[in-house]
């Protein structure tokens, strides 16, 4: 257990203390991170193609994805709507509609990477007849580099401990999403007859589809990794589409449902639809959830 956690947290810890003072290096790390995420998700697609009884496993991926998405979403939305009623959040009135299509395209491009890897894997397996046993080792190496870069980004995000501790709304949203996601994960595990700790691990992605798909796939195999990726990707797509529609009436729900994405992909829409006062809440909530994903997911996976 501790060896596996050390393997993950060492590059995160080291990366956190590497300063990126010049903007060009920050852009370089961001671009490299995006490329490695695309590459490792393509390798997940290759891993899916390498499975035996492929059609049966694809059906299992769909069943896992749908069950976890609906179970977790049910608990998330009920609790977030209660937060909106109990702790209303002021938003700025905005003019016009927000176009979420560019952000949705960015998410869909990662799904395309998985599909492309799947096609390449099928071609390699059935047409070229080459072995695919190298994929797991390649995933591990790229994951270590990716976590180092993620640690660098977190360390240079500019969010200090004081800012986190002072923003109660952001902490509240993060806590609500964590607890209700776990409830949904337990329900999904019960429905699917899975071990409870696997249900909690699958529910601990909080919208970070790239990292959750990688970590789950590395420990539970490509079927669960693919399901975790799709589950969290669906969360982001629903958030991107719904934020412009519900921000004025249900701002906590609009910010909170996106989970970890509220500090990156969904943040621009949150700012434009809810105003600048919503930004600290979104950043703090997303930051806490992003920081929680590797710790909580790996903890449950190692049980």
Automatic annotation (TrEMBL):
Keywords: Membrane, Transmembrane, Transmembrane helix
InterPro entries found in the cross-reference section: LysO
A UniProt-annotated Pfam family: Lys_export
Membrane spanning stretches: 6-22, 34-51, 63-87, 108-128, 140-161, 173-194, 206-230, 282-301
Domain of life: Bacteria
Protein name per its UniProtKB record: Lysine exporter LysO
Species name: Vibrio stylophorae
Gene expressing this chain: lysO
